[in-house]
Amino acid sequence: MKLAVFDVDRTLYDGYSSVEFVSYLKKKDIFPEKQYLEMNDLIKKLSYKKIPYLKAAHDYCLILGDGLKDINKQTIKKQAKMFFSEKKLYSYSADLVSLLKNHNYIILLLSNSLIELLGEVKDCLGADSVIGIELETIRGKYTGKILSEVHFEHGKSNSINRYLESNNIDLKDSIGMGDSDHDIGFLEMITHPVVINYRKELLAYAKKNNWMIADKENVLTKIKNIIK
Questions:
Q1: What is the pTM of this model?
Q2: CATH for 118
Q3: What pLDDT digit, counting tens, does each position of 106-149 carry?
């Protein structure tokens, strides 16, 4: 079996799933105002380039964990199911996952988003595993502590290494896809790195390292050429 690793937001999912989910929870009066405003301020600083993307991704997760503290995990799982819609996936996403699974690829979703939400994406696409933000729970409620490390600079690559060890597989002939400079660490590990819907920092790095650059119209064709 071979491994295909996908970032989710703006790679398979048309948007930023965690940001949208938090907004949804705020409207449901589940996510608190204080942390919601902190998140919006962080996003604003990122948009004005007052904070590096990697730091913004890290700090966002810390605020997320704090905002969900003392909330029941089952409540968030229920809300994730109600929030998620397959219409938010790119038109190519299902066909891309199906193509790779038909060629004996294990599909791993890797994202700076809650695993409760990623589970909905996984089930919809028929992916095999997810790595995302995992929050500690005690007696069914979030404590605010983050157990995962995808929000760290090298968190995605470290998480993949542990996944490989746990599942006794390697990265021979692997395919990886991402959209931001936060994905560079794990894409460097991959045999066939692919960038799509890219931020300019990732595009520059991809060109420098001769990585495959795809768009919505040609991504299926380019992946087919890889697996021939």
A1: 0.94
A2: 3.40.50.1000
A3: 999 999 999 999 999 999 999 999 999 999 999 999 999 999 99
Q: From 203, 156, 154, 157, select the one nearest 179 (Cα to Cα).
A: 203
Residues 202, 195 contacting (CB under 8 angstroms)? yes
**Which has the closest alpha carbon to 183: 161, 199, 170?**
199
In angstroms, the CA 225 to CA 217 distance is 14
Provide the 8-state DSSP code for 77. H
Q: Residue 67 corresponds to which tokens in the numbers above?
A: 């905002």
Domain of residue 76 covers: 2-227
Which residue type sits at 61? C
In the chain, the N- to C-terminal Cα span, in Å, equals 15
Partners of 75 in beta bridges: none
> How many domains, in total, are found in the chain?
1
Q: Give the whole-angstrom CA distance, residue 97 versus residue 32.
A: 36
Give the separation between CA 198 and CA 200, rounded to whole angstroms: 6
Token code pair at residue 134: 């995992």
Burial 117-143 (b: 16+ CB within 10 A, else e): bbbbbbebbebbbbbbbbbebeeebbe
CA 109 to CA 7: how far, in whole Å?
A: 6
Q: Where are the beta strands (DSSP E) in 22-162?
A: 105-114, 129-133, 135-138, 141-146
* Residue 52 CA: distances (Å) to CA of 20, 22, 78, 164, 182: 21, 21, 33, 29, 10
